[in-house]
Amino acid sequence: MAGVALDIVPLEFSAMIARLFSCDYDAIYMRPLATDLDPAGNLDFWLSSGSAHLWNMQQKAPATDWERAIDELMLEQSAALDEQRRHELFDRAQTTLAEHAPALYFAAPRLYYAHSRRLRGVVPSVMRPPVLWNADSLSVAGGR
Fold first, then answer.
1. What is the C-alpha end-to-end distance of the chain, expressed in Å?
2. Domain residue spans in the chain?
3. What is the pTM of this model?
4. In the chain, is it the N or the C terminus that has fewer CB atoms within a 10 Å radius of its CB?
5. Closest CA to 77 of 93, 100, 60, 99
6. What is the pLDDT of residues 28-66, one digit of tens each?
């Protein structure tokens, strides 16, 4: 059996970011928020020169062959017009990232929210905001 021993140390956000940028950590658990569901809208995360690239930070060019491959795949993906081709390229970029595991991902955080029974059209989602993502479909029933 194998295991991992952890000493968990909560930090203020600014202290965590300072450690992240200086690479002064063994592991950091954080939840970066995607700004777009289209991967082309999050190139700052995927490209090795991106400002939100969380491994080998602040580099101007890819530090590894696999990072170079991801850069090429994501640039091609963002320019492709064919939806199927875009999916294929992004699948390959995600596979390459998973093979080298510079960051570990957890499927979805546990989210809790509440709403009135009068609110109609509520469809929970892991997208942010978890209830208002489909605001144009929400309505309020009359009466109490």
1. 57
2. 35-100, 108-144
3. 0.62
4. N
5. 93
6. 777 666 656 788 888 888 899 988 777 777 788 898 999
